[in-house]
Amino acid sequence: MPPDLTRRSHWLDRRRLTHTRLTFYPRSVDPATEDLSRLADQLRLGMLRIGHDHVIQQANEAAHVLLGKNTGSLVGRSIMEAFLDHLAEQAILGSLDGGGGALELDGPGGRRLVIRARPDRARPGHIWVLLEDVTELRRLQRIRAEFIDNLSHELRTPLTTIRLLTERLIDELAPLDVPARIKERVATIDVETGHLVQMVNELLDLSRIEQAATQLHLDDVAIGPLLVAGVARLRTFAERQGVELVVALPETELPPVWGDAERLGQLLLNLLHNAVKFSRSGGTVTVSASVEGAEVVLRVADQGVGIPRADQPRIFERFFKVDRARERGQGGTGLGLAIARHIAEAHRGRIWFESEDGRGSTFFVALPIAAVRTEQG
To answer: N or C: which end of the chain has fewer CB within 10 A?
Structure first.
């Protein structure tokens, strides 16, 4: 073969070799993982794979952008070098013991990041970490909360004034000889204004709870007196509805829970109010409590209309009302159960329910026992 053709043949062989090497994946990277990495890039989700030595073995482009690092610079770095945050390191490594961890923190460039860590089941000791930019979501949530807060404040004063004026008008009309329909219409204004005042107060309350603007005053809270006080406050309302309230406490004294007595009282009142409101005349609402493991579980059981299965997944959503409640003219703001859920979660507790359509509902609230919660910090 002529020298020129020989040199050209060698050059083509080197091109083929180089091209072939570029199309192969490194042994440590699975082709399927590469596809997932590219998909995460398209979704703007950062993805990291951390080895058993706590060193990053793989990182997609989005992860570099969210963490403010140059492309390719994350591989080989430790968790602390990548995140520069002890809490992030603890949450990621803690996922190996707990099966999963999540943390929200400030990232570079004013970003707000959510970090979710999960152990890699295929590789013991390895961890998958997902990074999500929630900056815009948190900004919109803050705008919504500020709007609700401002609107509630602006509405509260005129509504309170209207309520006071209607109450005074009712008192002044009582001894006068005026048509009954006028007295009824003024009374209706008073009732409807009361509903509006309640909605404004609950909106403001829920907004503050969601923003964690309301500081919990945590201490040992005795459950028995809390249940008795809650039932006493709603007994008059229950009697008007023809519903009997019953408190069923165990013979042995319940251990105190770790919480804010005022907020827990509010949670109980919301559950009791709903139970009475949706009970039939002549029914019974039973409030009870028991110790289960490291928690005290409260129960509010009614014999009312129950919750249709189709509506059950949404029952704790704000403003959600079962259609049957509207048909029965029960009113309400649709915020009571949403507030109850937030209060339970703020106490590191749980809230759930069991219901059968047409046969009543039972709501459960599990709260940590004070002694156990103190030991765990």
So the answer is: C
Q: Which two tokens stand for residue 12?
A: 């083509």
Q: Evaluate whether 349 touches 365 at the Cβ level (below 8 Å).
A: yes
To the nearest whole percent, how much of the chain has pLDDT over 70? 82
69 contacts: CB under 8 Å, gap ≥ 6: 63, 82
Strand order in the sheet with 127-133: 56-59, 45-50, 127-133, 112-119, 101-106
Q: Could you tell me which residues come within 8 angstroms of residue 99 by beta carbon, excluding any fewer than 6 positions away? A: 118, 119
Handedness of CA 139, 145, 146, 151 (dihedral sign): positive
DSSP assignment letter at 258: E
pLDDT band (50, 70, 90) for residue 350: very high
Does 26 score more than 90 pLDDT?
A: no
Query: How many C-beta neighbours within 10 Å does residue 305 have?
Result: 21
- Whether residue 15 is predicted with pLDDT greater than 50 in this model: the reply is no
Q: Are 345 and 367 a contacting pair, CB within 8 Å?
A: no
The whole-angstrom separation of Cα 377 and Cα 370 is 10
DSSP string, 170-202: HHHHTTS---HHHHHHHHHHHHHHHHHHHHHHH
Instruction: Name every residue whose Cβ is closer than 8 Å to that of residue 186 and which is 6 or more positions away in sequence.
Output: 166, 169, 170, 173
pLDDT (0 to 100) of residue 223: 92
- SS3 string, 332-376, reads CCCCHHHHHHHHHHHCCCEEEEEECCCCCEEEEEEEEEHHHHHHH
Paired tokens of 346: 């703020």
Closest to 320 (Cα-Cα) out of 108, 126, 72, 308: 308
Specify the pLDDT at position 14. 43
Average pLDDT, the chain: 82
Residue keyed to tokens 């048509």 = 179
Dist CA 147 CA 81 (whole Å): 39
Domains by residue range for the chain, with CATH: 22-133 (3.30.450.20), 139-210 (1.10.287.130), 219-376 (3.30.565.10)
